[in-house]
Amino acid sequence: MPSRDPNEAALNARSNLIRMSLVFMAMAGVIAFYIGTGRVQLNDPVELTVQVTQPRSWTEAGPLTLAVNVTLANNTGEAMPLEIDSQCKIFRWFLTDRDQNFVQSQRGDEACVDVPMRGELEGKHSISGEYELELDPSRVKPGDYILFMNYWGNERREPVTIR
Question: What's the CA gap between 159 and 56, in Å, rounded?
C-alpha cells in the first residue's frame, strides 16, 4: 500500500472539517428559519401559564393573599373541548411546603353554581382567569412553598416564596 503524504492528509482533513462545518451551519439556518417563521411550534399543544404575586407582606394578623393569573392556551389549529363537572372546579388549588407536605387548600365555602360547564377553546386562542387566594397566616409563614393548581382540568405547580 503506498504511503500518503502527511501534508496531503492534513489538507484533506481540513477540507472535510470545513465541509462538515458548512453543513451544520446550513442545518442550523434552516431550523432557525422554520422556527422564526412559525412553521414549527415549540410550544406544547395545550399550555397553562401562571403568574403569582403577593400584594402584601406576611403579618401574623393577616390577611395574607396571593393574586394568581392563569392562562390556558390552545396552540393547535383545532378547537379543544373544555368540560368540567362543576363550575366550582374550574380553578382548584392547594399549597405544600418545599418537601410537598400539605399546608392549606382551597376552602369549600366559595360561592359558585354547582352545574357542569362545557365549551371549547378555538385553535390558536387562549382564556385567562384571575383569582385571589386567601391563605391562613397561622399555617403559612414566610418561606418557600409549592402551589398546585388545576385550571379547566390542566395542572400546574408553581414555586412560591412568601415574604
Answer: 18
